[in-house]
Design a protein that fits this description.
Blueprint (H helix, E strand, L loop, with lengths): L5 E5 L5 H10 L5 E5 L11 H17 L4 E4 L2 H14 L4 E2 L5 H7 L4 E6 L1 H5 L1 H10 L4 E6 L3 H6 L6 H11 L9 E5 L7 H8 L4 E3 L2 H14 L11 E4 L3 H12 L6 E3 L3
Parallel strand pairs: 1-2, 1-3, 2-9, 3-4, 5-6, 5-7, 7-8, 9-10
The structure holds D-glutamic acid (DGL).
């Protein structure tokens, strides 16, 4: 048993969609969440920038004595996880679109990944598709501007509906029967996405898969936790803005919210 916390980070509040799934599966673990809001959105950043942001967050989490880290961000995973695994010798769990799952489930052999433009363009995603979905069409749709809107915590902003319609409508004629959400901000919009694509299209995210992988890795390394104490939430941006969004998205107000400079 190991009761040190698990670190988890994203460019902002999107990673909370992963955190809730991990917490459901591992209720005896404690977490240190970092939202890198000072540098978000990650979706338009270069590989060098993403490596540097991820490096600083990892160094902070290591200083907090974490036993493992979840990169709760597809963009950071596809560009920076190799670098992180090389530099930090601890379990690091990434978040990527569930390509294998959609390839197994689809009947029409037409699927889509809806992610940030950076993830859409990444060689890492192309390699995943080549490996796990060689005989399936995977449309790569990049959503622009959604993360910043989700960061406010106000999911009723009409701009969100507008972007979703513009991004997803081109898919409607293509006989796609499953869409993987490839950005951790998007699960907060699942209901809205489902409404646009209709009930014959399944919308899936990566949260459950990351949670199962985390459990397997902690189990294999014999570092599962056995005692809940508390979770800590940090932002590299504005604390009040972060606290408001966390409260709105998690529907609760965590006790320990701070801003950090890293
Ligand atoms: N939530 C992140 C992801 O999964 C990135 C969002 C962003 O900052 O662009 O890709």
């Amino acid at each position: 048993m190991d009761n040190r916390p698990i670190g988890i980070f994203d460019s902002g509040v999107g990673g909370l969609s992963v955190l809730v799934e991990v917490q459901k599966l591992l209720p005896l673990e404690n977490f240190i969440f970092v939202g890198d809001q000072g540098n978000m959105p990650y979706g338009g950043k270069t590989k060098e920038q993403l490596n540097s942001y991820a490096d600083k967050i990892m160094a902070f989490l290591v200083s907090q004595n974490v036993k493992a880290v979840i990169v709760a961000c597809n963009t950071a995973t596809v560009y920076a996880i190799d670098f992180l695994r090389e530099k930090y010798k601890m379990p690091i769990i990434g978040t990527v679109p569930v390509i294998k799952t959609i390839a197994n489930i689809t009947k029409t052999k037409k699927t889509a990944v809806f992610s940030t433009p950076a993830t859409t363009k990444s060689p890492y995603l192309s390699a995943l598709i080549e490996k796990f979905a060689p005989n399936v069409t995977v449309y790569k749709i990049g959503g622009t501007g959604l993360e910043e809107l989700i960061e406010t915590g106000d999911l009723e902003n009409k701009q969100i509906d507008k972007i979703l319609h513009e991004s997803l409508e081109p898919l409607l004629q293509k006989n796609v029967d499953i869409i993987a959400l490839g950005c951790t901000h998007y699960p907060f919009l699942t209901d809205k996405i489902q409404k646009i694509v209709g009930k014959n299209v399944q919308v899936v995210d990566s949260g459950g898969a990351v949670a199962r992988r985390t459990k397997a890795i902690l189990t294999n390394n014999q570092i599962l936790g056995s005692k809940r104490t508390d979770d800590f939430y940090y932002t590299t941006g504005n604390k009040n803005r972060f606290a408001k969004a966390v409260k709105s998205l998690l529907k609760k107000s965590p006790r320990n919210i701070s801003s950090i400079i890293i």
